[in-house]
Structure formats: C-alpha cells, structure tokens
C-alpha cells in the first residue's frame, strides 16, 4: 500500500511531517500555557494593586555639614534608625560581596532567577528540607517593602510578581538603593548606613573587607547574628560570606584570609550627634525636609564641642559653654556649640545658650569707641581721663576699683576701663549707640520701664551670642555686619550687610584690640579680642576676630545664677584662644585703610589730642548757635563732575554755629588745619560713601553721610 514501507512503517517523509505536527502542537500548547500563565500572573498582579514605596521613603531625617558629613540623625516615627544611602555612597567591594553571596545573577535576571528557584526546589524535594534559598535581591526588596510574617508559596509568588514589577520600574542600582535603605541589621537598625555607623562608627564607603562581610551576612537573620549580643554567630556568618566571596572572585584569597583574622564588634556605637541645637533649629524651620545641609564644618564642630565639654568640667558643676564661629566673608556659621554637654541635665544642655539673651558686660565697649572715632570725637591716641566721675546719679567704677588717670583711648579700651567708655558714651549718646546696634541687625533688649541710660555701655542690656558675634564680624568686614547663614542647601537670602561702623573706625578698633593683653600662656598680637563680665558674675564673654573668622564664647550657668569669680578674661578668653588654635592656620591681619591716621597724642590735630571737658559737647557756648553741617546735607548724592580728573574735584564744606576754630574730618581723618571760618574744602579720591564730620573748639560735633558720584 502506498504511504507504508515493507516493514509496515510509514515512510520517512511521513514521519517527519507527523513529528513536525506534534512539535507544532507542543509549541502551541507551550505558548498557550505561557500565555495563560502570563495572563494569570497579570491578573494576579492587578489584584495586588500598585507598588507601595512609602516605607522606603519614610526614613530618618538627617542633618549634614557643608560637605554632607552626617551631623545628626533622628529616628523614624516608629523609633527606627533608617538613614538614606545610595549605591554610589557604598564601597564597590561591598556590592560585589553582596551579589556573590546573595544573588550572583542579579545584573542579568528580570527579578526572579528561575535557575536558582528550580535548583532550590529540586534540593528541597530531594532532602526534605530547605538547602538553599531562591530569593533574589529584588525579591528581598519586595518583601522588605511589604513585610509579611507568613512564608508560604503564595507569599513567594507575591514577592516574585512584585520583583518583576520593581525590575520594570527601576534600574538595578535603584533596586540596590532600596535594599541598602531597608535591610534589617538587628534591633531598631535598618539600612546599611545605619548599621555601618552603629557597629563600626564609619560610613559605608570606608568599610574594610571584614566589616563589609559582616554587614552582608547580617540581614539573613539579623536577631540571631547581632554582634552586640551574639558575637560568635556574627563571626560565623561573616566568615561564610568571606569564603563565598573568595570562591566566586569577589575577594582575593589573601585579602579574605586577613579579614578572617579580624575581630567582630561586640557593642553598638551611638549615632553621631554633632551640632544638636543647630540641627533642631533646622527641623523647626523646615519640618517637611528629609535631609538638611548646614554650613557647619563637622570636624571643627566636633573639636569645639570637645573643648567646651572639657572646659566646663574644669570650671565647675552646672556651668555651660557656648561657642559660635562665623566666616567673615560669607557670614556662614562654621560651628555652633550651644552647650557644653547636650545630654547633661545638670548643665541644662538642651538649652541653646548661643541664642539666649544675656548681659554682655564690657563686650560692647568697642562699638562705643568705633562710634566716637567715626563722629570725630576721638582718635585711638586721644587722651581720656580715667578718674572718679559722676553723670547725674550714675557713677561708674572700674572693675578693679582703681583709676589710671590720663590714658589714651587705645589703652583705655585694651584695659577695658569703665569710666572712659562711659565718658565717650555720654558724648555720642546712649540712644544713638543703641540705634546703631539695632541698625546693624542686633536684637538688643533693654528695660522697658526707663529710657536707655549710660549703663547700657557696661552691660545694662541683653544680647545673644549670635548677635554679638555678628557685630564683631562687622568690624572685621570694614563695618558691615553680615547676615548669618546657617544652611548650605538653600540659596542665601540676599539680605545685605548692615553697617555697625565706618571702615576706618572699624580698623582702629581692630588695631586696638589686637594689642589687648592675652590670657596667661597665650600668644600676643595674633587676634583682636575683647572680653566681658556681667554684673554679679553671671556671664563671662570673649569675642575675637581676624580677617577670616570671628569666634564668640560665652560661659555661665543657664539658669542665670551668679558664679563668684567667673570673669571673662579668666574663664572665656582661654577658650577663645584655644578655639582659634583648633581652627588651624595662622590668623590673618586686616590691612589698614589708606586714610588711617598714624600719629601720637602730641601730633594729633588739637581738637583730637584730648577729650575736651571745659565746655558742653552736645552744644556750643550760649553765645553761639548749635553746630550743624549746612553742606553737604545728610544723605545727599554729590556729583563730583565728569570732567574733573581723579583727585582734582573738590567738595565744598560749610557749617553753621559752633565755636571756631572748626576742624573738618572725613571718615575720621582730619582735613587740613582748624579753620576760624565755617567753610572748608575736601578733595575726594574717588566715588563712594563718605562720612563728613565737624568739631568746634568746645568739642561739639555734627556728622553727615554723603554719596559721591
């Protein structure tokens, strides 16, 4: 018969057709099965709903320094440490060891490693127990995102579906980011960064091979392998990771051998807590932000916190120390120590004393002198009288109850003599002095029940260390007090600096304070600094600056109780000088302005040689009208003339009233000789702002500020 051979078998071509049809039917069946499975998986995935990534996003709020080093972290609402970290911030060796140990085909599978899953199922069927796991890192991420207690086939199926969804949505590195953020490491530690800090006190980028191996092995059974409770089990897990990493080439055999010899940690380390007060202030200002980056420098902050703690313990119980460091050029806060010990209840460490209102003692005297220099009342070499004096009912005394007699303004400020400072304040006016401080941005607090009196010059007001440092930074910047900048993750507010003094008077104060006698065993002439001691020995202050930075120190009890013997020079000044030493580098002096007047008391113009006492300084003699500058008017813009060559244009000066002869000054520097006439001229050296002052023979003064164009 046709279609069969002699043996009764179909011919070869017929067999080929039959086999082809069978194969086609098998392929169609496989396709149908695969399609059915795909549809079933799709339908099942639809019942699961969208991926919930809220747990990955619900991490610890962190505060970092200017270079993104961790300053402080806060636990999540459920009390867990879960710090953000990305794959780029992890040592590549750790990633290699992790994939070699947990998921060798991580970079190639679509979320589920079917080869590993089939192998695990076959091994389990043969042995009757679980020999190896089939979960991929992506499946582990799925389980971490949706934690479930059961370990059933349905739970595995759910993880597999979620893993495929994750792979479709995220890159491999992004999936690793999720794993590094959520993996458990024992107790309330979640995530690689929290574990690295808790067990080794370092960031994941700096782990050794042994340390990395321990953290690779912990998440499989975090509670039974915790090194702080079960170091033996932790070591065994670490050693298995090292052996497997060496076997699969993720680690060299010699390096693995050395790592096996390293000990494992046996205790948890505290999470960093630097600049705690600044960190809390950042959270209050922007509670929705997850990562806050401050202008603080972590290394300097740690050094100064250690210094504050050490000095407070040496000074006595219940005392605290606050330190603030400001970059003069930018106004950025480089260190903010709000208390000697944040966790100490005895020292009230939770109170930020850098922002507490306290009496500054003599720390504001430099600004009295700056105002006197600026208005032409005095020069650093002007002779002042330091002798018993009375101003109405107020009779100031020096701190040591002694008097120096005739002293220069330079010496009076360097020795912090009270009587000369009050004498100058009486001339410039207490209200004017306070207005200048407030104009510069300082929030000074004075008693409400009375008008400000001369006592404000010796500490009869309240001010914060932050404001005091800002004012001194203004002296370092030529009289322009900067707005303090606390955050590096936000653009500066653009708030312009506010003037606390004129450039020349600022430099005069710097030059004087640089010559102040330093504390015992400290070098002289390196920084300009001033101390202060409040009434009743409640507050000790020291503020110093050079061209680069300004540092302020406060010492006292947060409750405001008196501490007998607490003196700024003895308690705060040594901390200030040590803070500058820990800052590093040599202090930079501030260059003298071109119009600085270098003279002795004898060679000064006559009105500046000695502070006059033979006539009132706020008005002229009765036979003359009050002294007043008639031209240029205050705030005027003066066009010097486009045709005039530099240095040839002249500005006419005219005064009314007063007792001749009159002395004209620009920015504190005399212009020519005293004139019997009430007119004068000045040749400006360029455009800009200038303070024009005039003083008569009776010591009365008047000043205006003009803009030259």
UniProtKB/TrEMBL annotation:
<dbReference type="GO" id="GO:0030288">
    <property type="term" value="C:outer membrane-bounded periplasmic space"/>
</dbReference>
<dbReference type="InterPro" id="IPR050396">
    <property type="entry name" value="Glycosyltr_51/Transpeptidase"/>
</dbReference>
<dbReference type="Pfam" id="PF00905">
    <property type="entry name" value="Transpeptidase"/>
</dbReference>
<feature type="domain" description="Glycosyl transferase family 51">
    <location>
        <begin position="78"/>
        <end position="245"/>
    </location>
</feature>
<dbReference type="Pfam" id="PF00912">
    <property type="entry name" value="Transgly"/>
</dbReference>
<dbReference type="GO" id="GO:0008658">
    <property type="term" value="F:penicillin binding"/>
</dbReference>
<keyword id="KW-0808">Transferase</keyword>
<dbReference type="GO" id="GO:0008955">
    <property type="term" value="F:peptidoglycan glycosyltransferase activity"/>
</dbReference>
<dbReference type="InterPro" id="IPR001460">
    <property type="entry name" value="PCN-bd_Tpept"/>
</dbReference>
<dbReference type="InterPro" id="IPR036950">
    <property type="entry name" value="PBP_transglycosylase"/>
</dbReference>
<keyword id="KW-1133">Transmembrane helix</keyword>
<dbReference type="InterPro" id="IPR001264">
    <property type="entry name" value="Glyco_trans_51"/>
</dbReference>
<keyword id="KW-0812">Transmembrane</keyword>
<protein>
    <recommendedName>
        <fullName>peptidoglycan glycosyltransferase</fullName>
        <ecNumber>2.4.99.28</ecNumber>
    </recommendedName>
</protein>
<keyword id="KW-0378">Hydrolase</keyword>
<dbReference type="GO" id="GO:0004180">
    <property type="term" value="F:carboxypeptidase activity"/>
</dbReference>
<keyword id="KW-0328">Glycosyltransferase</keyword>
<keyword id="KW-0511">Multifunctional enzyme</keyword>
<comment type="pathway">
    <text>Cell wall biogenesis; peptidoglycan biosynthesis.</text>
</comment>
<dbReference type="GO" id="GO:0006508">
    <property type="term" value="P:proteolysis"/>
</dbReference>
<dbReference type="InterPro" id="IPR023346">
    <property type="entry name" value="Lysozyme-like_dom_sf"/>
</dbReference>
<dbReference type="InterPro" id="IPR011815">
    <property type="entry name" value="PBP_1c"/>
</dbReference>
<feature type="transmembrane region" description="Helical">
    <location>
        <begin position="26"/>
        <end position="45"/>
    </location>
</feature>
<dbReference type="InterPro" id="IPR012338">
    <property type="entry name" value="Beta-lactam/transpept-like"/>
</dbReference>
<feature type="domain" description="Penicillin-binding protein transpeptidase">
    <location>
        <begin position="322"/>
        <end position="546"/>
    </location>
</feature>
<feature type="domain" description="Penicillin-binding C-terminal">
    <location>
        <begin position="618"/>
        <end position="705"/>
    </location>
</feature>
<dbReference type="InterPro" id="IPR009647">
    <property type="entry name" value="PBP_C"/>
</dbReference>
<keyword id="KW-0472">Membrane</keyword>
<keyword id="KW-0645">Protease</keyword>
<keyword id="KW-0121">Carboxypeptidase</keyword>
<dbReference type="GO" id="GO:0009252">
    <property type="term" value="P:peptidoglycan biosynthetic process"/>
</dbReference>
<comment type="similarity">
    <text>In the N-terminal section; belongs to the glycosyltransferase 51 family.</text>
</comment>
<dbReference type="Pfam" id="PF06832">
    <property type="entry name" value="BiPBP_C"/>
</dbReference>
<comment type="similarity">
    <text>In the C-terminal section; belongs to the transpeptidase family.</text>
</comment>
């Amino acid at each position: 018969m046709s279609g069969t051979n002699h043996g009764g078998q179909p011919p070869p071509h017929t067999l080929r057709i039959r086999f082809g049809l069978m194969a086609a039917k098998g392929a169609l069946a496989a396709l149908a099965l695969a399609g059915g499975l795909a549809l079933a998986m799709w339908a099942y995935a639809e019942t699961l709903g969208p991926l919930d990534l809220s747990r990955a996003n619900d991490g610890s709020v962190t505060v970092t320094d200017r270079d993104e080093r961790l300053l402080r972290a806060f636990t999540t609402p459920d009390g867990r440490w879960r710090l953000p970290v990305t794959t780029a911030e992890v040592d590549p060796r750790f990633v290699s060891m992790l994939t070699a140990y947990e998921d060798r085909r991580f970079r190639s599978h679509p979320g589920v490693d079917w080869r590993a899953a089939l192998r695990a199922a076959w091994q389990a069927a043969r042995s009757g127990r679980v020999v190896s796991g089939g979960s991929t890192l992506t499946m582990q991420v799925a389980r971490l995102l949706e934690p479930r207690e059961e370990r059933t086939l349905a739970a595995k199926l759910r993880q597999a579906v979620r893993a495929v969804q994750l792979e479709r949505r995220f890159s491999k590195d992004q999936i690793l980011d999720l794993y590094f953020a959520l993996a458990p490491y024992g107790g309330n530690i979640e995530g690689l960064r929290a574990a690295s800090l808790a067990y080794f006190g370092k960031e994941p980028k700096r782990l050794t091979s042994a340390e990395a191996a321990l953290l690779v092995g912990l998440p499989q059974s975090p509670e039974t392998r915790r090194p702080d409770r079960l170091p033996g089990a932790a070591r065994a897990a670490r050693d298995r990771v090292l052996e497997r990493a060496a076997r699969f080439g993720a680690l060299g055999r010699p390096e693995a051998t050395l790592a096996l010899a390293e000990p494992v940690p046996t205790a948890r380390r505290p999470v960093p807590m630097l600049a705690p007060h600044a960190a809390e202030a950042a959270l209050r200002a922007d509670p929705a932000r997850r990562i806050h980056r401050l202008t603080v420098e972590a290394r300097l902050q740690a050094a100064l916190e250690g210094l504050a703690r050490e000095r407070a313990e040496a000074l006595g119980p219940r005392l605290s120390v606050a330190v603030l460091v400001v970059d003069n050029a930018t106004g950025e806060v480089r260190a903010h120590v709000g208390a000697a010990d944040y966790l100490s209840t005895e020292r009230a460490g939770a109170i930020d004393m850098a922002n507490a209102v306290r009496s500054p003692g003599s720390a504001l005297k430099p600004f009295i002198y700056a105002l006197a220099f600026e208005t032409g009342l005095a020069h650093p070499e002007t002779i002042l009288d330091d002798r018993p004096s009375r101003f109405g009912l107020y009779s100031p005394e020096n701190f040591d109850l002694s008097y120096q007699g005739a002293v220069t303004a330079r010496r009076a400020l360097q020795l912090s003599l009270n009587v000369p400072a009050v004498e100058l304040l009486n001339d410039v006016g207490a209200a004017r002095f306070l207005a200048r401080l407030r104009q510069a941005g300082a929030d000074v607090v004075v008693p409400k029940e009375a008008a400000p009196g001369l006592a404000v010059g010796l500490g009869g007001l309240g001010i914060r260390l932050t404001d005091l440092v800002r004012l001194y930074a203004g002296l370092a910047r030529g009289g322009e007090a900067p707005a303090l900048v606390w955050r590096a993750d936000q653009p500066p507010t653009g708030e312009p600096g506010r003037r606390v003094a004129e450039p020349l008077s600022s430099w005069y104060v710097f030059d004087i304070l640089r010559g102040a006698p330093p504390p015992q065993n400290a070098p002289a002439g390196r920084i300009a600094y001033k101390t202060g001691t409040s009434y009743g020995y409640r507050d000790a202050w020291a503020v110093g600056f050079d061209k680069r930075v300004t540092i302020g120190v406060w010492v006292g009890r947060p409750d405001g109780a008196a501490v007998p013997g607490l003196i700024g020079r003895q308690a705060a000044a040594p901390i200030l000088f040590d803070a500058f030493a820990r800052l590093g580098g040599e202090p930079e002096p501030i260059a003298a302005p071109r119009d600085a007047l270098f003279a002795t008391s004898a060679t000064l113009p006559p009105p500046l040689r000695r502070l006059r006492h033979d006539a009132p300084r706020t008005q002229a003699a009765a036979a003359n009208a009050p002294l007043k500058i008639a031209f240029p008017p205050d705030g005027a813009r003066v066009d010097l003339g486009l045709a005039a060559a530099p240095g040839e244009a002249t500005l006419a000066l005219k005064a009314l009233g007063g007792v001749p002869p009159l002395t004209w000054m620009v920015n504190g520097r005399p212009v020519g000789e005293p004139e019997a006439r009430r007119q004068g001229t000045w040749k400006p050296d360029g455009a800009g702002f200038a303070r024009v002052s005039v003083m008569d023979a009776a010591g009365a003064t008047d000043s205006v500020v003009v803009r030259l164009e």
